[in-house]
Write a structure and sequence with these properties.
The protein is of the alpha+beta class and 161 residues long. The chain has a domain at 2-97: PAS domain (Beta-Lactamase, 2-Layer Sandwich), CATH 3.30.450. The chain has helices spanning 2-10, 30-35, 40-43, 48-51, 97-115, 132-145, and strands at residues 16-19, 25-28, 52-53, 63-68, 71-80, 83-91. It is 35% helix and 22% strand. It contains six helices and six strands, in the order H-E-E-H-H-H-E-E-E-E-H-H. The relative contact order is 0.11.
């Protein structure tokens, strides 16, 4: 409960900073200066690469992970008028480790659901035939289907393999 209240107290006020086209800081909010114990005048004109340790790559998402002055943070990056606004969404003390893992597992689970291709569902009962050979093939196929093996079916085309 305390962490939730802490998040509400700080939501939106960890501060932000803005960079120009060349990646130099052109503005730093008062909240950012207070929470990260910096002086705005010392950081104006400094490269984003000096502010963000492990600086972001070329292809940025809208929300990125960054280390700012020794604090692990999540930043929302907004492009506007040839400038980038970096707003601190969360700082490491806002969240519990287990909450982050739960979130990541949920995100990974959603990705996996999207990747799974719906396959056709058939039953061995749909295989026509009652001869001993067909019965043996059905039993063999059922055993193989239960394993994680790859099977190659060969034969003439058009035979319904």
């Amino acid at each position: 409960m305390e962490k939730t209240l802490n998040l509400i107290e700080h939501s939106g006020d960890w501060g932000s900073f803005t960079t120009d086209v060349s990646g130099k800081l052109i503005d730093v909010s008062l909240d950012f200066c207070e929470h990260f114990s910096i002086d705005k005048r010392d950081w104006l004109g400094v490269s984003i690469h000096d502010v963000i340790q492990g600086s972001p790559g070329q292809k940025q998402k809208r929300v990125i992970f960054a280390t700012l002055f020794g604090y692990s943070c999540l930043l929302r990056v907004t492009n506007k008028d040839h400038q980038k606004l970096y707003r601190v969404i969360l700082r490491q003390e806002d969240l519990d480790h287990h909450e982050i893992l739960s979130f990541m597992n949920a995100v990974d689970g959603e990705k996996m659901k999207k990747k799974i291709v719906k396959s056709n569902r058939y039953s061995f009962d749909e295989i026509v035939g009652e001869s001993p050979v067909i019965t043996h093939i059905k039993e063999l196929a059922a055993r193989i289907a239960a394993s994680n093996s790859t099977v190659l079916l060969t034969g003439e085309s058009g035979t319904g393999k």
